[in-house]
Amino acid sequence: MGEEYVRDAETGETQFRQKTRFRYNSPLVQVCMIGLVCFCCPGMFNALSGMGGGGQVDHTAVNNANTALYTTFAVFGILGGGIYNILGPRYTLFAGCSTYVLYAGAFLYYNHYKHQAFAIVAGAILGFGAGLLWAGQGAIMTSYPPQHRKGTYIAIFWSIFNMGGVIGGLIPFVMNYDRTEAVSVNDGTYIGFMFFMAIGTVLTLGILPPSRVVRDDGSRCTNIKYSKVTTELIEILKLFLNWKMLLLVPASLASNLFYSYQFNNVNGLLFNLRTSGLNNMFYWGAQMLGSVGIGHIFDYSFESRRKRGFIGIGVVALLNTGIWAGGLANQLTYSAEDLPEKLDFKISGSRFAGPFVLYFSYGLLDAMFQSMIYWVIGALADDSETLSRYAGFYKGIQSAGGAAAWQIDAHKVSLIGQLIINWSLTTISYPLLVLLVMLAVKDKNEDEDGATKGSAVTSSSLSNGNEGNGK
After folding, report:
1. CATH number, position 355
2. Best CA proximity match to 273, nearest among 188, 343, 349, 351
């Protein structure tokens, strides 16, 4: 069973101590499971988006579809935490993931008929599903792990998730290897994405509810098994007056704002089709490196949790300044009206190196920026109910920024203007996050949010199928 029993000298009660984390109902396995789900669904979506224009030469359809997506995502991201608390992870995640298959299918349809309507409707439906998925993911990733290892678990999730982007980038790279001219990706590319997304949808059925997840010290993520619609609506509305969430707003807005610029106007404009697929493999691979690096800082750099937060935010802020400065230098070499010849990894020689390293660095920074936000959110509470709402609020505001970004690109805002908007908003975020850590993050792992810590449980709580999920 992987546990040993010890007797408390004072109370005489028998408690257990874990010998292994590789139980199905352990936080590690469950975080890996949600990582695999996101590997298959949003990981493939990221690879599709990262090609620029969703793999289409004309970016109009994907810009409009993504505007619809992020508009509904903004609403259901905020509501998603409450829905998660009512339905539990399996139903919430299954409903969310199924919408990804529809979205990829819409662009398979668009490849033949060039009708935007289906893509826009599919984008709006995906926004609903993504709101549910990411609220559930945020709750699992921030509440299941022990408090002192949340950075590590975030890195584990982010690495598995972004491996989907790496493999997703490999699909168009291989299938379009001989097509150096500016054309839309072939049908097989979209079918490959749909296949992985369908697998991810099925995998959601293996996610356990928080009441059945047992940490190595015997504590559970929550004791609360039920929630009501009215309760969740009231708690969600309170978030808009919660000073902690308000300090997160600029970072939340910034965290998806740069995708349309990086995908469409760097990877999509500077590189040909096969090279943009290759770039995506490295972009999402860089995310794996970035999440592991910043996760180590947030968990191991200092004994004081607050000090780890300050150092982590400072490191990301410094990299942010350097990478966006490099982006500015690159952007000054071209504009939407004066585009250079498309770069190819085989024939462009040294001209390929600089833009490639920049795009790689954008991926590195993205993972560090978002992992930083998740760590801060995870440090604000420890129970699944609270953190699902916090994560939903973050994803909702993030998606509002994403909706604005795709319309900024659709309305032909200058490329240099888009870069300045992104750089400015990320820069504003850092002092506010420092203030949030200073005021709200405690050095000691005190139980102030209703989570059970170190409670004694019987051996039955380690079993994977004998306890009702309460949802």
Report:
1. 1.20.1250.20
2. 343
